[in-house]
Amino acid sequence: MIRKAFVMQVNPDAHEEYQRRHNPIWPELEAVLKSHGAHNYAIYLDKARNLLFAMVEIESEERWNAVASTDVCQRWWKYMTDVMPAKEGANKSPNAKKRLCK
After folding, report:
1. Residue 101 has pLDDT above 80, yes or no
2. Active site residues per annotation
3. What own/partner pairs with CB < 8 Å and gap ≥ 24 does 88-97 have?
């Protein structure tokens, strides 16, 4: 199992809405994540900095990367556009972090 951690931003006035939209996430998105080998996905909010810290265990980088091209993931990203800042032409991939210690 590969552990991944990454950081995303949430709009300052959208903390509650972000949480509401994730409780629960769409069943079809959850199914895609599971079918692509994602396990133990958790997201934490740093309210002071409007940052989301996410962790997930994946079975393979290739399967994880394939999630982004699924229809449900594309619809989810569009659904979340108004609560998460986006730059014109920006890559939707979160800012991945390197693990430094075990």
Report:
1. no
2. 22
3. 92/68, 93/68, 94/6, 94/7, 94/8, 94/54, 95/6, 95/7, 95/8, 96/4, 96/5, 96/6, 97/5, 97/6, 97/7
